[in-house]
Amino acid sequence: MSDVKKLAVIGAGQMGGGIAQIAAQAGIEVVVFDSFAAGLEKCKALRAKLFARAVEKGKMTQEDADAATARISYVESLDAISGSDWVVEAIVEDKGVKFDLFGKLAQMFPDENVVLASNTSSISITEIATSAGDAASRVVGMHFFNPVPVMKLVEVIKGMQTSEQVVSRTIALAERMGKTPLPANDRPGFVSNRVLMPLINEAFYALMEGVAEPEAIDGIMQLGCAHPMGPLRLADFIGLDTCVNIMHVMLEGLGNPKYAPCPLLKQYVAAGRLGDKTGMGVYDYSKK
Ligand SMILES: NC(=O)c1ccc[n+]([C@@H]2O[C@H](COP(=O)([O-])OP(=O)(O)OC[C@H]3O[C@@H](n4cnc5c(N)ncnc54)[C@H](O)[C@@H]3O)[C@@H](O)[C@H]2O)c1
Question: pTM for the complete prediction?
Answer without folding.
Answer: 0.93
